[in-house]
Amino acid sequence: MFGRVLLAAAALAGALLGGGAAQAQQTLEAVKARGQLVCGIHTGIAGFALPDSRGAWQGLDVDLCRGLAVAIFNDASKVRFVPLSSSTRFTALGSGEVDVLFRTSTQTMLRDVTLGLRHAVTYFYDGHGFMVKANAGITKAAEMAGATICLIQGTTNEQVTADYFRSINQRFQPVLFERTDQAVAALVAGRCDAFGTDASQLAGARSSMPNPKDWTILPERFSKEPYGAYVRRDDPQWFDVVRWYTYALIEAEEQGVTRANAEEMRRSSQNPNTRRLLGVTPELGEALKLDRAWAFNIVRALGNYGEIYNRTMGPDTPVGLERGPNEIWTKGGLLYALPLR
Questions:
Q1: Beta-carbon neighbour count of residue 113 at 10 Å?
Q2: Is the CA virtual torsion 209, 212, 215, 220 positive or negative?
Q3: What distance in Å separates the CA atoms of residue 160 and residue 71, rounded to the nearest whole number?
Q4: Exposed (0-12), middle (13-18) or buried (19+): which is 52, by Cβ within 10 Å?
Q5: Which PANTHER family does this UniProt record tie to the protein (predicted)?
Q6: For the whole model, what pTM was predicted?
Q7: Which residues pair with 131 in a beta bridge?
Q8: Which of 6, 71, 174, 307 qualifies as a FRET site for 327, CA 20 to 30 Å off?
Q9: 3-state SS assignment for residue 110
């Protein structure tokens, strides 16, 4: 795992030396000139990024990309999605193939200090888990000694699984795949006894399987997997835009600004924080070189963070995930917006 990180770092360094660094200094200007945001997303996992029956991408990460396009252009359609595998996502970002990654990417120390990239704000909290057949009689991971386990190459889940079985002095047989759909197909075909990845992705994978009730996600979690947007390290202005854009979605939920009431709150609220957020006063937009109504436009188009979450993977969707740690801090969760002032 560490070796792959170093190889990825070397590849990114070469890409930056080859001209990506100069381009990255003006990412916001380049996006505006292009007339389109280019956003790296997952190759396909329900809840985060998956094409619907019409071929249109849907999911939390997809809507976060669309929201960033709204912040820049006031138009959610001005985004091009680039599906990237786990093993190619960071190289694609470093080389300038995409402007930003909203792609189920865990924030870790080695990624932060070796890849030439920066992660912005944690927008989703998760943990590694395992999915097995419901009739397998397995209730905890320790009962899977010697099991064959499907894993996605280039993810933190490889290392987490290896570390866990090493910690209990047991062996397992990893079977590595480039994409989630490949791992799920192998699991359904009986090539693997279990699938190991982040629990939210297990829930998304299960919702797309032929018989979801045939599969169970074990309750244990074996890691901390905080997802953050990634950008190139050498463009602090673009980092600021992505960072405070993400905070604005969370802040809107904290303040009770929704898709339905955003216009009324912008018109009538006397709360200074709400007035700043919704662009009644111009300082936030001016600081980011965006329109003064950038945050208002996002919420009016897509909703606040909670609305996006519930629409894409919440309890009333096939993925069926409760908010849990992804609830805002005033309701017992971990999401907390730094002050937008």
A1: 12
A2: positive
A3: 36
A4: exposed
A5: AMINO ACID ABC TRANSPORTER PERMEASE, AMINO-ACID ABC TRANSPORTER-BINDING PROTEIN YHDW-RELATED
A6: 0.89
A7: 195, 217
A8: 71
A9: helix
